[in-house]
Amino acid sequence: MRTQSFDNTHTAFLTDSPAKLIMANALPAIVSMMFMASYQIIDGIMVGRRLGSCQPTCRIKDI
Fold it and tell me: Residue ranges of the domains in the chain?
């Protein structure tokens, strides 16, 4: 049982230009990679600030 959405997607992959298909499918991947990269950078800054404020003799339970 095929749905209308499946038929539209199937037709688009057969008839649209490759450049249009690449952009349509690559855009969500690019956005998610940018989100993950910014998350890791911000997380590194936050952890670095928290651990950087601790003295060298600081123990884990003091954090």
Answer: 4-62
Instruction: Sort residue 55 into left (φ over 0), alpha (ψ -120 to 50) or beta.
Output: beta
For the chain, how big is the Rg over CA atoms in Å?
A: 23
Dihedral of CA atoms 17, 22, 25, 26 in degrees, nearest 10, equals: -160
Enter the DSSP assignment of 57. T
Distances (CA, A) of 12 to 16, 22, 55: 5, 12, 60
**pTM metric for this prediction:** 0.56
pLDDT, tens digit, 9 for 90 and up, residues 11-36:
888 899 999 988 888 999 999 999 99
Residues 6+ apart with CB under 8 A from 13: 21
